[in-house]
Amino acid sequence: MMVALGAWFVSGGTRQLASSGGSMAGKQSEAVPPKDGMADMSMPAGGESNVSQAYAMVPPARQQLIGVTTAVIEERPLKTTTRTVGRVEYDEQRITHVNLRISGWVDELFVDFTGQSVRKGQPLFNLYSPDLVATQDEFLLALRSRDKLKDSPIPEVREQAEQLLEATRERLRLWTLRDAQIDEIARRGKAKTYLTIYSPVEGYVIDKQVFKGMFVQPETRLYSIADLSQVWINAEVYEFEVPFVKTGQLAAATFAAYPGQAFHGRVSYIYPYLNQEARTVKVRLELPNPQLLLKPEMYGTVQIDVNRGVQLALPEGALLDSGTRQLVFVARGEGLFEPREVTVGSKIGAYYEVREGLQPGDRVVTSGNFLIDSESKLMAATNMMGSLGMGGIRMEQAQMGQMDMGEMPRGTPERRKATASKKAGDLTLALVTEPASPRIGENLIRVTIKGEGGKAVTSAIVQLTYTMPMPGMMPATVPMKRGKDGAYEAKVNLGMGGQWNLTITVQRAGQPDVNETFSVTAGGGGLSGMLDK
Asked: Does the predicted TM-score (pTM) go above 0.70?
């Protein structure tokens, strides 16, 4: 289905709005907007620009036909959810390794398999260490010396005995003996052959490298114990999602093992490097795990809540992104759509963040804009082609010689109005030109539309299409500005002398379109320039 859309085009260089017909004298015609208050539709001044887009005029009936919908630009909270896959891992800050500070032989093993749960202070194994036995003997000797010398009349002797005792006690502490164990040795008065090693934390044994009868040294890692009351989930997010993820954001994870149950936590860290092969960035979540339902190496689905706050938002369907520019069509009222370049930021859910080009209250096309865009470009190209035969390159100077369009003095009879009237359906159209004999160059075309009983039609959308009946001449269409008492007018440039066909299209809500054609002769004299057809 082909739908014809009227359009204005944006000329290069000065970037002013112009009607489709160019002046033979190189002067642009003034395309009168379809309603008052539309003067701000002129494009901003700037450098050279290609003629690539046109203002599109789409009547309401045709909008419905092509499925045009619009939405108002407004500020709204932009929220979405980033979904990815994550894997449960140990919280590295809750892993404890058990090593010794002395060497010896493992005599008896109490915690003897991986995965076993342990309590803080629970015995792990007994150790026989000759060095430790010797140090205990030194401690007992220092203790007996202190007891013998505590009543010495010489203060220095008493003090040295105390210092020696404290030094041997501290040495036992450095070898991981607790004060209770040291006090027990002092009470017994005899060195312990075996030293019991206790768990420093509560958790689960995730690695065990100790066996009964094994000789161990300080560099030997005996156990790794993990506290699983809190776990990490490492997830991968794509490059384009990285700006959305911040530390502290809420997150949730679901697992196939627990259908219908979500585990909640927060983003705790974003890794500072990229996975070169997958083009993803690792994100770490921290989740409480009081019931120990989450097991390391489990895979689940991660959802990270993204909240960008209140932003000026553009519906995703409104944006036409060619890769070199971003375009929307702004509804200007009465079927007129303005192509406007915009700058958008991130896409959050179904909306883009608006950075430049739109203001709150602008109404943009959200569907049907692809057809409007293609027709807009087509009309812009058509209008450019038409301008080649209608004065855009001053063809009259090459073919007809230079003409001075201002040679007729103001106030002469030629500048008076000429009127022709036609009956079209239930309407009567009275067309007037100023000057009365249309001239080569700018002319004012005014049509007064009345219905049954001579009642003025004031709420129609009216367009004027003008062309010459000759091969290769492309028609140009401009909207006619609504005036008083059913009058509509537009200024056009008739680029060369000869007959011009003026077609008036009247569109009313709930009524069929009315089209009526008048003919005028540019460069003629008197009322003969107006010919009914």
From this structure: no
